[in-house]
Every structure is written in C-alpha cells, then in structure tokens.
Amino acid sequence: MIWEREITVEGKIFQVTISDNHEALRSAFAEGRAVVGLWDRERADQNLAPAAYVVEKLEDLDDAFVERVVRRRAGLPWNIAKTQRLTIREFVPQDFADIPYEPEAGKPGAIFLKEETLKDYIRHQYVFYEYGIWAVVDHVTGQLVGKAGITNLELTGQEEFLRVIKNNDTPVELGYHIFSPYRQQGYGKEACMAVLSYAALAVSERIYARIDEQNLTSIKLAEDLGFRLIARTHSGSAPRLCLYEWNCS
Predict the structure, then answer these.
(1) Which residues in 10-118 belong to E strands, given as ranges?
(2) 193 pLDDT exceeds 90?
C-alpha cells in the first residue's frame, strides 16, 4: 500500500511517500521524494530499501518525524534550538568557509579542518546518531560564532572514568568551542544550556564533560550549568582530567 504526506519545510512544499512496498519506495525515491518504509514484523522477506526511516504504524508519523525525513533527503540542516541570540543547528557544507583555524580547539575540532571531512561528518554522524557537534550561529547577524553539541564519550585508557559510569551503556559528553572573536560574550553558556535542554529529551538524561583540571574557565562554566565532579584521572605527571556529570532528573 502507498500513502502520501505533504509538508512545508522552510517555505517549500515537499511530498513524502510512505509504503510497505519496495518498488513503490524505489520509484518515489528515484523521483526525488522523501520516503518512509512501513514495517510489518510478520513479513520476514520485506524489503524497504531505499527508505532510511521506518515506522510500524502511520500514527508514528508526526510532523516532527516527517520534517526530519524531508530534511535528510533534501540536505537541509535540522534546527536544534533557538535562544535569545543564537540558533543551534546542524552544520552544512557551506559553513566550512566560516570556520577559523584555531589550534587550541583540540582534537574535537579536527573534523572541521578539512572540507571533505566536514561533509563526511554531516552525511554520516547526523544520519546515524541524530546528534553530534552543531553550528552555533548568531541569528541576528547570521555569523557562525562557534560549535557545540553532544558526542559519544570515548574512554579508552581512562579506567577511572569507566568505573564510575559503567551502568551507562552509551555515555555521551558535552562539547563546545566558541571562536576567539566571539568570546567573553556569554555565547558558550547560552549555547550549552540549549544543547543540554535538547539532549535531555532527545539523547540522554545524563551528560558528561571531561575537563583539564587547569582549565578553570571551563570548570566554572560546567559548574554553572549544573555539572558535578564525579572522578579524576591519576596518570603520572600529565595534567589530570576531571569527569563531570549532568543529570536532568
């Protein structure tokens, strides 16, 4: 069977095809439409390609879900949050020209140092996880002022941290970087508050942050946001890392 939905995104009308039939989905996709597969758990041989999104019943297709499907198909960024001064949204390839090279951004910034790497990140990270590092934009000037978001917490070699979060199967952490021309204006706190509010509903109720114990500015921001210190590393003469936890409950 085939169902059609129509939705307006950013002032443009998009057609969405929902079906439990492979040929119908393939034909609609070839025409450039967004498609959603309707899964029947009783059919072991069901082929719903090329649908990237699948639901079990039509009632699951609320406007937010359909808009996300359309945005993925059309290459439009998902808008995460809007604050008094900022829009937080997914990166788009055009943002690369506005990303300054700032070595102090550290390893998380490496994905943004090459245009092709940024494009790969947009194609794979957002689609697979539905979260990641997002663009922080001044919505009055349209200027990209930094980045902030949620990433998976990698703890290889940090056994002290593994012990305290062992009951969390997929821990995630908050990350942010405000570009140097826009610091000391409160953008970091404003962006992080919005990211945490979104993540608590869409990603996880528990968010972590790893901070060099000498980075007093980031520690103060974490504490202002409601993070609490739960562990430290103890590795030789290297600066110790502090693990902070934020829990919306």
Answers:
(1) 12-19, 34-38, 54-55, 79-82, 86-89
(2) yes
The enclosing H or E element of 228 equals: strand 228-232
Domains of the chain: 2-74 (no CATH), 79-247 (3.40.630.30)
**Angle formed at CA 189 by CA 186 and CA 195, multiple of 5 degrees:** 135
Residue with structure tokens 């528990």? Answer: 206
Is the backbone of residue 5 left (phi > 0), alpha (psi -120 to 50) or beta?
beta
Angle, helix 216-225 to helix 187-202, in steps of 10 degrees? 50
Coil/strand/helix, residue 9: strand
Residue type, 177: H
As a dihedral over the C-alpha atoms of residue 202, residue 208, residue 214, residue 217, rounded to 10 degrees, the angle is: 30
Pairing of strands 206-212, 34-38: unpaired
Give the integer Cα–Cα distance in Å for 133 and 231. Answer: 24
The pLDDT tens digits for 81-125 are 999 999 999 999 999 999 987 765 444 455 677 899 999 999 999
Q: Which of 245, 238, 220 is nearest to 153 (CA)?
A: 245
Burial of 119 (0-12, 13-18, 19+ CB in 10 A): middle
